[in-house]
Amino acid sequence: MKIRNSALAGIALAATAALGLTACGGGTPAGNGSSASGGPASGEITVYNAQHESLTQEWVDAFTAETGIKVTLRQGDDTEMSNQIIQEGQASPADVFLTENSPAMTQVENAGLFADVNKDTLDQVPAEFSPSTGKWTGIAARSTVLVYNKTKLTEDQLPKSMLDLAKPEWKGRWAASPTGADFQAIVSALLELKGDSATEDWLKAMKDNSKAYKGNSTAMKAVNAGEVDAALIYHYYYYGDQAKTGENSNNVTPYYFKNQDPGAFLSVSGGGVLRSSKNAAAAQAFLKFITGKKGQEVLKNGTSFEYAIGSDVPANDKLVPIKDLQAPKVDAAKLNSQKVSDLMTQAGLL
Predict the structure, then answer these.
(1) Cβ(300)–Cβ(313) under 8 Å?
(2) pLDDT of residue 15
(3) Whole-angstrom Cα distance, residue 51 to residue 236?
(4) pTM
(5) CA distance linking residue 261 with residue 191, whole number of Å
(6) What are the pLDDT digits (tens) for 12-22?
(7) Cα angle at 328 between 324 and 331, to 5 degrees?
(8) How far apart are CA 327 and CA 64, in angstroms?
(9) Could you say which DSSP state residue 45 is in?
(10) What distance lies between CA 1 and its chain's CA centroid?
(11) How would you classify the pairing of strands 96-98 and 174-176?
């Protein structure tokens, strides 16, 4: 995703306007989304957004309509945005950082750049969908799936585990998008669950066995066209295409590994407030809103097909319920994007 040049002027305006607010100087949270004077949060904030732009825009529109707080979005991908925040440090104009996957959140957290998330926001999200540290919170989730061409394979011919894709019989038959943050998050979970040696072995076999595509949608399209039998992606690419024309997915169906397999990994999208925020009250209020009932209903009723995880809002009716995914337990705070990048580079995948 490319940074939106049109947002640059808005970012500068937001930073300037925020300096005039009396609330939350120096990035200190002001409890429950209120200003230091006890009034409601107000003013403007800048969000560095690595989530889907359309989804975040829905959140922003609803939040601004309810609070009057203006939100400027600056768009990029997970790693691009996290690296930029780290480079900017305490001078960052960002108030909030949103991601598609959690390794980028951990990268910013490890740099010491997040404020604590207000407790009433953390309480809206079950503990398994947030890091143990409380420095950021889950805002949505996406399940790992193997989409396969149902005209070529039946379910009983599929691998029982994601690790089985390393076997010789899968050589040249499956695809992925190894350069994407989505896939690297899946590898991060594999590393945390199975350790260095198993991850190194699997990545080496992947180099030999898989075909690389640029983007999950492209990989799924290749499966649909019969170029490969299967692809390891996230679930919502399939459901999103089905909700449109289905032209890239009509020959495809998703397979869920379940059984706490690494291939059943449920990746958490994250949201955090920067310590350097000049309007931390409004930033905390935004995070509380998107993890609250109204924000999570945007996920349930919208077209992103990501999982709602907060405020007891159920998933979109078309999706497999989270409880039925049988996902492995992974502490999002322990996902290591730098080590994964190093291992994938050593395996020749990056």
Answers:
(1) yes
(2) 38
(3) 13
(4) 0.86
(5) 13
(6) 333 333 333 33
(7) 125
(8) 35
(9) E
(10) 14
(11) unpaired
Q: Is the pLDDT of residue 293 over 90?
A: yes
Please tell me the predicted confidence (pLDDT) of residue 319.
Answer: 98
131-181: per-residue pLDDT in tens?
999 999 999 999 999 999 999 999 999 999 999 999 999 999 999 999 999
- C-alpha to C-alpha distance for 315 and 293, rounded to whole angstroms: 12
Tokens linked to 107? 């990268």
Phi, psi at 311, each rounded to 5°:
55, 30
Burial (Cβ within 10 Å: 0-12, 13-18, ≥19) of residue 102: buried
| Tokens 């690494």 found at | 262
Name which of 234, 257, 214 is nearest 304 in CA terms. Answer: 234
Residue found under tokens 């540290």: 133
Residue 349 pLDDT > 60: yes
| Rounded-to-integer distance, Cα 322 and Cα 324, Å | 5
Say how far apart CA 334 and CA 66 lie, in whole Å.
35
The interaxial angle of helices 293-301 and 280-291, nearest 10 deg, is 50
| pLDDT at 24 (0 to 100) | 36
What pLDDT score does 39 carry? Answer: 62
Neighbours of 256 (CB within 10 A): 18
What value does the mean pLDDT of the chain take?
Answer: 90
Residue 214, sorted as left (phi over 0), alpha (psi -120 to 50) or beta, turns out to be beta
Determine which of 15-19, 186-190, 211-215, 322-326 has the lowest per-residue pLDDT on average.
15-19
The DSSP letter of residue 154 is -
Rounded CA-CA distance 47/107 in Å is 17
Alpha helices by DSSP H, listed for the chain, are 8-19, 53-67, 78-88, 103-110, 119-122, 181-209, 216-224, 235-243, 280-291, 293-301, 322-325, 337-346
Structure-block tokens of residue 74: 């600056």
CB 336 within 8 A of CB 103: yes
